[in-house]
Design brief:
By secondary structure, the protein is an alpha/beta fold. The chain contains six helices and eleven strands. Helices cover 27% and strands 23% of the residues. Strand 10 and strand 11 form a beta hairpin. Helix 1 packs across helix 5.
Length: 202
């Protein structure tokens, strides 16, 4: 299913429809403030495993990331000290992934690495979905690290490629080609481990 939504004012009826697909363990492709990404209800292990299979991700070796609506319930899913919280508050919503140590409320699949990436994109479509779902959404970009191909920015081409793999592709306009800036906050010294879109405000 290809659904058109607008970042400024996502249609609530369509949001509700997509949320109920996520609640049933469905997979969706959606826009963020960086690239288009594929995701599911972050607490639905079977759906998370399905995405890992599609993207050829080994959850024991890779950082899994989740999208939260805002910072208010971050501490449910990750351990955040004051300095890290302040840093996140300055930079979010925005094109950043903050790597933090996980807490016990995330399913076991996230605990292999003991860390989780936290995203709060500056994009109303995905944040509204998270807000209405009431859970974070597990997220990974549809582009491969080495190749940024045109199809990954055009929702109609994305739909052509993924229509048999996912339940919904959200057309939120053209996507970007630059991933998020990844900041490792698991040690006392915060470290940028991948410079992407966005300049971190310290």
């Amino acid at each position: 299913m290809l659904v058109k939504l607008y970042d400024e004012n996502p249609n609530q009826k369509e949001i509700d429809k997509i949320v109920s697909i996520l609640q049933d363990g469905g997979l969706i492709i959606y826009p963020t403030d960086t690239v288009y990404a594929i995701g599911c209800d972050a607490l639905n292990v079977r759906a998370v495993e399905e995405i890992c299979k599609i993207k050829n991700i080994n959850p024991a070796k890779s950082n899994l990331s989740i999208i939260c609506y805002d910072l208010s319930n971050i501490s449910e899913y990750a351990k955040v000290d004051n300095a890290t919280f302040k840093l996140m508050k300055k930079n979010l919503p925005g094109p950043f992934t903050f790597i933090l140590n996980t807490t016990s409320s995330l399913p076991k699949i996230y605990k292999n690495k003991k860390t989780v990436g936290i995203r709060i994109p500056d994009n109303n479509i995905i944040r509204e979905l998270v807000y209405n779902l009431g859970n974070p959404i597990m997220t990974t970009s549809i582009k491969d690290e080495d190749e940024v191909i045109e199809y990954t920015t055009d929702p109609e081409l994305i739909y052509e490629k993924y229509q048999d793999t996912v339940d919904v592709v959200i057309d939120g306009g053209y996507g970007g080609i630059e991933g998020s800036t990844v900041v490792d906050c698991t040690e006392e010294e915060h470290e940028i481990i991948r410079q992407g879109k966005g300049e971190l405000i310290l």
